[in-house]
Amino acid sequence: MMDLILPVFRLNLWYSQKLTADVPEEQMCAQPVAGRVMNHPAFLLGHLAWAAGDVAADKLGLPPACPAGWKELFGMGAQPLADRSRYPSKAVLLKALEDAHARLADAVVKAAPETLAQPAPERIRERFPTIGALLVGLMSSHGASHNGQLSAWRRAMGLPPVF
User: Fold this and answer.
1) Residues paired with residue 130 on neighbouring β-strands, in sequence order
2) How many other CB atoms are there within 10 angstroms of residue 69's CB atom?
3) pTM score, two decimals?
């Protein structure tokens, strides 16, 4: 089953890279809609790296890969900040995302069926009954959803579509 998910996971990474390729460093935290807080590229790249590198990897027994403090900056419930100095550079964020993707893809391929069949954490078990189902969600719809936010942010910034 995971062999079917890996192409989607790779596509999500490619699309994240494409959506941020032409975004200048100084605009990575821009808030283009007055009175509204949007998930900006710096937040979204870090969140996706944290979700793959720490959250998903943890379910496969891997230690966290992201730097200390990323959970507070990019984790569930964190709010995107307009202060560019609070976030790593675009290059660091993209590298962290690429590394997290490679590490998780490798771990998923090697995961034992028994591991993937284990129950997911109680709080999300209704949506994702098993670790395998949770990983499929994180590797597919989670990334796609946040790429949609990146795409909307681009349009609000006046940037062209990427395809």
Assistant:
1) 119
2) 8
3) 0.96
Q: Is 48 strand, coil or helix?
A: helix
**DSSP secondary structure letter of residue 141:** I
**Angle value at C-alpha 70, between 29 and 93, nearest 5 degrees:** 50
pLDDT tens sequence across 55-104: 988 999 999 999 999 999 999 999 999 999 999 999 999 999 999 999 99
Residues in a beta bridge with 119 = 130
Please tell me whether residue 100 adopts helix, strand or coil conformation: helix
**Residue type at 45 in one-letter notation:** L
Measured CA to CA, the distance from residue 143 to residue 130 in angstroms comes to: 19
Measure the CA–CA gap between 42 and 94, rounded to whole angstroms.
9
Helix 41-50, helix 2-20: angle, nearest 10: 160
How far is CA 30 from its chain centroid?
A: 19
